[in-house]
Amino acid sequence: MEGNGEISDTDSGIILNSGSDSPTTVTKDVTTHTRAMKLKHQDLKDKLEICLLELKKLCIREAELTGRLSDDYPLLPGEKPPQIRRRIGAAFKLDDQSIPQGTKDSELSLVDAELALQMKIFEAARKLCDEERLGKAVKKSRLLQYKREEKKVKRLQEVAFQLRLERGRSSPHPAFNASQDLGTSDDSSLSDSVVQDEEVISQLTQLSCTGEAEASSQSFTNGSYISPSVTPQPLPLTPRRSPNPSINSMMSLTSSPADDLPPIQHSPWTESSLDQPYKKSKKSRSSSKTSSPTKQELLPPLEDCLAQAGVPVQLSHLRLSRSQSNSTPSTPEMRVHRQLSLRLSSPDSPFERDRGRTRSSRRRLTDYKINLPETSPLSNYGNHAGSEDSNSEHSYTSYNSSPCPELQSAFPHSSPVGCYGPPAFPRNGFYHNSRYQSSPNFHRGYHNEDMVYPPHLDLARSYYAQQVPCPQNRYEYSAVPNHRGPRPLPPNPRLSPSPANYDSPHYRPSSISPQVVNEQLKSWHRRSQLKTPRSRSLDRQGAIRLKNAPGQEATHYQSQKYNEQVIQRRAPPAAADETPGHWLVDDSHFASQV
Amino acid sequence: MAHTPGQPVSAVVERIEIKKLRQGDNLILGFSIGGGIDQDPSQNPFSQNKSDKGIYVTRVSPKGPADEARLKEGDKIMQVNGWDMTMVTHDQARKKLTKKGEDVVRLLVTRRSLEEVVKQSMGPWHK
Predict the structure, then answer these.
(1) pTM for this model (two decimals)
(2) Contact across the interface for B32 and A266, Cβ inside 8 Å
(3) Mutate which of B23, B26, B27, B89 to test chain A, going by most A C-beta atoms within 10 A?
(4) Is A568 in contact with A518 (CB distance < 8 Å)?
(5) What's the sign of the alpha-carbon dihedral B106, B112, B113, B117?
(6) Lower CB count within 10 Å: N or C terminus of chain A?
(7) What number does CATH give the domain B13-120?
């Protein structure tokens, strides 16, 4: 520093002149003073620097939490603000200005809640997507995820808007909350509403390919969207909705100050691995997604999952295994579920796509029903709930996927409606959702199970066997039995503890008269029986027998015919077990789904 | 490598032939690409000119097919099997590279080191 040099010079000069006249001493005082001051200044500067550094750190930390760099961040001229990597998890905050109030206007409020949540998810996805220094796969998957979330948001907005329109017509007061009024005001623009209607309807038609032809827009909007919203998030649902659902909210999201998206033409610079076929990009997302409930619906098609897992297995085989896995758990809930599916299936029959597949799934369903344990639903549920859920999901996914594969491919988002629910659904909603859920993630889950729990194979099998009195039908796809070997049944560890549960129903005398049997079930069963003459693979059967068939059980497997009879006889008790409540719930779901 | 649209591109290129590795149904190339005219070029860490919207090799998995063909991270892909890669979207590039029917892709790539080497070798006479 120049200053120092000068000071020292003057100092030395002063020293030399010491003892001379006063003026010099004065100058000496002054110079020492300035020197001291300079030192102090330097000291302060250093401190300031340290403080600034600290401030910077704090600001960055704050920014990581808020996503916005504080204005207090000290910027030297020319210095660029640092790139902030926001921690999304911490950023998720729902404003509780409007919590769904009471039951009135429930659909709308639920949709709104769902929408609010979805918005958050969307926002989070977008920010995740904007993060830098991500792995290629992660980034890719995030990008896809972001797009899907966006679609979902839009869809939800449409639904909310639709609901609001209906509400506006039927009741003068839109009800939900103050902000909603704005939404109703939008109703004045009829052209908009018309568009909305059409869109919804188109969605409906797409949905219908899953087998429910009778879908009505009303049920669609009400049921399918709502049910997921009810169950999925443990978080407090606070519908924070922008007044104009379809447009404003989107805008607000995108315009959020935290980060400005690059102009539309430029998506963020991403890399993509060339090691997977083009479409596979989704799979990585699926893997990342599974943890968070809402994201599940986004999972990639089965093929992708397979590819990801590196399993060179043919699809058909996979399906086979899947169906097996499905069969494993039978619980009261399943019964309800099955019933539902059963009913659906009859309307489905006209539906031509992929007949064999759907049929098989139906068959599977019937089997389930028959075999259902008679034990009290609650206890069973407790024991099996987890496994059952996963299994049912599997089954449904497979069921769904087969009928309309195009749907999935065309719409990564394919299950427009049901997808919003997390896997961890309370079962009512869950069933409902699963129907529409796009298969991929579940497949994935299934997949994992297979891989992870091979040691439990035996257990799973035995259990499975017990559950399945009518094996022939089940294995329609078992034409290639070999593949089963490598992929064991998804063993549900949970199954093991409750052998008593599933045992009891089987041994129980099935005294109920066939009259009670649901007519649909019968006809359906018969139909499927006729249509699916394929026999199941022998090796499989043998395995089952060995494991399960000590004593009485063997009789169950003695002849196919016998099994069928058993099935028919057993069906009624299962139905009888249904509590009215269940039925109601399911029915409603059913209706809504349709 | 900055080039103005409409002008011929001159670059020192290396021919690289990658034999895809078959893994099940997948054909593995062993590298990743980034960029494309639909992506924000300013975020491209590899490009010299931040307005370059070309396709860049962002990653080469060790001992993978691309690695064995001596493709390097940061290479700019000029052509794939004769298809221009300097003005394509990311997905287009990806599709060209990952065609299922093709077991081999031939790339023309350019990289800074190449140009430098060439410049040096030609330096005294060719400035």
Answers:
(1) 0.26
(2) no
(3) B26
(4) no
(5) positive
(6) N
(7) 2.30.42.10
